[in-house]
Amino acid sequence: MPLQNERRTPKRRQRSFKRNKEAKYSEDAGTTWRSYMGFVLNLATCIDAVANASALPIVTLYSASVPLSLWSLTLDQALLFFPQLWSSLVAERFARRINGVTAYATTLLVTAISIFVRANALRDHSLSLYLLARLINGLFRHTVLFNALAVRELSGASKGYDAKKIVIVSLIVAMLFGGALGDYVSDVAFATNILASMEFTAALTLILLSFKCKFRSKTAAPVPTVKAYKDWLMKQSSHWIPAFAPSTLSASYGSMIQCMYPFIDRQVFHLDYVFIGLHLAVVIIVQAVLAPLVVKRYGKMNQWMIHVCAAFLSVGAWTSPWITDNGLAMYLCTTLFFTDFSAAVLELMLSSVAEDDFKASEKVFACTLHRHVKQAVKQWSRILLVSVHTVLSNREDAMRVATTPVAVGLVAFIFTRNTRVALVVVPLTAWALVASPPLDRKAI
């Protein structure tokens, strides 16, 4: 018997070695697939940004196919904004029940469907289909939440990828690609179908690869939950409103003027869509690359830079109806320095100060709230601009009436360091401008 056991020992060792080798091979294969998934996830993020932002340079083609009034524009924005607020909690529960990668792929798939619906709306000149596409996005598009869950579930597979830089580069590519579509694809509906096909391909690839990859356990909460964020927000008093107001005013000012660039470039200067895309790409570079470098170089609260940027905003707001009368070069230089650069620098400087007022334990939620507030104000400030133009359609200085109160409010905050004073100055300035006689270009 001892001899038989001694003879069996090498076989047992061989089987044990084989099992260990198979386990190691399985682990290596899983790691390889996770690396592929990390690459594909970032690639899908790029494609999603390109597919959804490429419409901006050709927005004039959209407005020509489906003309929108003030009320339809307001409804269009409401169908995106309010359903997203309502569906965030449900979306998070859905993502944690399955996994972040599959949820992210699903939201990309639904986004592709909404882009297809938008293409049909442009082809048929249908306002109802166009609004339906916005509602689909409002209910089911939660890319930021799902992407954060997916990145954490892949546990290190996305290391080496800078998500912020990826988004910046993707947006620049989107502006150039959208401009090329406008010039070289004659039918705007067909161009939109190309974007939808890109989104659909990215979603389908991500879904297929997700079956091959093992994810982290769903028991641990990988990122702060929407419910925790909501509970924290309900406990906050209104002190965050004056804290975020200055940076939000800067974001609103830039958004109101920049949303008019595609229309001015095309309708006033008759630029090709490629050049419109190039103009918007330069705006993104100024906001996302140049402005942070300047803030890093001169400090977060450099008083000299703050006063210069505030002065530039005031001059840009007052002369806004006049800048298109002196040629393309004057228009581009004036908007670059008096709007894009100045608003971006002020927003960054004032944002850092606002977020520093919160405790270290609340910093994540505070940054999230600040981002949401600025995003919401940017979206609705465009509706405000259209409203001012509609109400003051007989005045040449409607843009000045819309933007000057914001610039004056920022100047009031910078000199008084009192947010409440700035928030009072904004409506008072608006009332004074509306009540005063309109100024023509010579008077301005």
UniProtKB/TrEMBL annotation:
Protein keywords: Membrane, Transmembrane, Transmembrane helix
Which stretches of sequence are listed as region Disordered? 1-23
Q: Which residues form a coiled coil?
A: none
Q: Which spans are transmembrane here?
A: 39-62, 98-117, 163-182, 188-209, 240-264, 276-295, 304-323, 329-350
Q: Which SUPFAM superfamilies match?
A: MFS general substrate transporter
What domain of life is recorded for the organism? Answer: Eukaryota
InterPro entries attached here?
Answer: MFS_trans_sf (IPR036259)
Asked whether the keyword Transmembrane is assigned, the reply is yes
Q: Does the keyword Iron-sulfur apply?
A: no
Compositionally biased residues, Basic residues: 9-18
Could you identify this protein by its name?
Transmembrane protein
What is the native source organism of this protein?
A: Trypanosoma rangeli SC58
